[in-house]
Amino acid sequence: MFFCCFNNVKALVLNIRFTFKYLFFLFITCSYTVFAQNDSATIILNSNLSDSVKIHRIEAFASENTDNLGEKIAWCKSLQNYAIEKDRRDLLARAYCIMGTTYYDFSQYDKAITFLYKSLPIAEEMKMELLQSRIYNYLGIINSDQGNSKKAIYFFRKTYAIAVKLNDLSQQFTSANNLGVDYNSINVPVLGLYYITICEKIAKKHKVNNYLPSIFGNKMESYMRLNDPKKAKETLDSVYTYFKKTSQDRQEQISLNYFSGEYYSFINDYKKAIPFLEKNIELILPSEIQEYRKNYKILTECYTAIGDYENSYKSIIKYYQYSDSLVNSEKMQKSSEIENSYKNFKVEKELEIQKLNNINKSLQLKRNKAFLILVSSLSLLLIGGIFFFYKLFRDKRRANVLLEEQKLEISHQKKEILDSIYYSKRIQEGILPNENELNQKIGEHFVFFKPKDIVSGDFYWAGKNIGNNFLMACCDCTGHGVPGAFMSLVAYSLLNKIDESAEHKNPSEILDYLNIELPKFFKKEDSSQQIKDGMDMSLIEVDRKNLKLKFSGANNSIYHIRDGVLNVIKADKQPISADVDMRKYIFKTTELELKKNDLIVMFTDGYADQFGGPTAKVDGNLFRQGKKFMYKRLEELLMKHASQSMSTLKNELETAHNDWRGDLEQIDDVCLIGIRI
């Protein structure tokens, strides 16, 4: 591990996984003491070691055994020849890649690119994704070093995509950092900050704290490009805080000086920035070319800003001496510009003094004339502005008056509509049987009735008792609110008409009657004009003396619960419809033997269809999952509390409904009726 102190962090854990390869190599070296460190590549390649160990040894010797480029390349060529001899394209791809990275280490970018591009097509063909990731990373670094950040970003994005796919955290860390730096370079600091933040999260999660100062420095660059000096200073302070806790080596001191100089240059405190950068020039080693380039670049800007063209010229010459990312013509052009600025500075000062003496009088006249023009222009602008804002104010006041009138009119209309609907609610509540009436007709019971809106499309009806028999209906009309309430009045009227008739009808005959009479009620025999709406209904007749139940249902089933066991008494899958084409359907009657303490439950679909459920955490916030309650949960709830009193059972149903719905909207009217035999 090493600390990367420069802005680009190109060498920052280029591939942390290779650290483990080297550790493995050290283990193999200890195991096979027959090989000395100066063993020839031929001996290693012709040994009985596995191919992976051979590659690790060759790569290790090429990377660390010598500082001589020729010797390193000789080791790489030995691996190349071995791969060709054995017809191992995978080994050949690795040999080319190692050769390319070796040339990169010696700043021979043309040869590095040549061998990396020889390795890449083989790696892609053989789907060697780890090797592809490494090649893309080096190509990105080379392009970035040469100033082509857009192309570098292209390669780093490829590296990052592979790292995410393979869950390679070390390469995610490296490529995210490089992407952040190069997005800053092309002045897209929002994306730069995004990727640097990813890098920071990985470092903190895995406690790789020695990289944090470099990450903070790159974040500082993002904030500077976002023109946020406050946050830039906060990140610089984070670097200082880290270094206070640890001893600084030369590389870390260079990093701290560079970040300090860069920040003070950003806030235009050039004189404070210069000493940090000059100190770095003394600390940087001759082989650290990129460090020289970065520091001399900012020194040039600082000296130019304070008018010290002589040092500015010297700095930019040094910058171009260490820079291989710009063509020679551009270097000369920049150098010439700084040099000419320095030479012309004294001449311009002398000419300026002469010109000031010669044009002093004419300048005074021009000032007077300009002042007069300025005062006249401002007066005209002021008058025009006053007129414009007065007109704007007048139009806005008129618009506000009109809006207020419209608001009052809408509020009045809304109040009238709501008053009418609330009065309709009183009418509907007056029609529905009250608690005393239900106690007299059906005995021990509960009714959980909860309209979605002010008025309801669901309703319940109790017929008059005939001897020991009583009729009870639970109905769900099409729609809810006002439309549903209108349909419920029609249905209620037809049921009362049947109840007043002298002829006794069983439940299926009543449903058949409703199915025939409902289309007549709307007086539209023509099917093209006929209303298609209707209702779902469950209707029971209970004989208390003989303990028998007759049931007929239009889409609405009922539950029969005995000794904790729930039985579904299914309805016909057919609604009662206002459609004339549906009048021929004949509903069936289901008969059931009852016992004392049996529980009959009638219901509409509003309870089971309600959305809600447990909460889930999304982006730190709790949200309802939005699942339906479903009939299965309703059945389990009824069986659990069937033996309890009717009031307790009603409370449990209401509590479960409210808890499930939470803060979500009620989607339909709810009606549940329980009758204890």
What does this structure look like?
By secondary structure, this protein is an alpha+beta fold. It has a domain at 437-676: 4-Layer Sandwich (Phosphatase 2c, domain 1). It has 23 helices and 15 strands. The chain has helices at residues 17-31, 41-45, 51-64, 69-85, 89-105, 109-125, 129-145, 149-165, 169-185, 189-205, 212-225, 229-245, 250-266, 270-283, 289-305, 309-322, 328-358, 360-431, 435-442, 481-500, 507-521, 630-641, 646-661, and strands at residues 445-450, 458-462, 469-477, 534-543, 548-554, 558-562, 565-569, 576-577, 590-593, 599-603, 611-612, 615-618, 621-624, 627-628, 670-676. α5 packs antiparallel against α6 (109-125) and α11 runs antiparallel to α12 (229-245).
Shape: elongated
**Number of helical elements:** 23
Structural class: alpha+beta
Q: What is CATH's topology name of the domain at 437-676?
A: Phosphatase 2c, domain 1
**Largest sheet, if any?**
6 strands, antiparallel
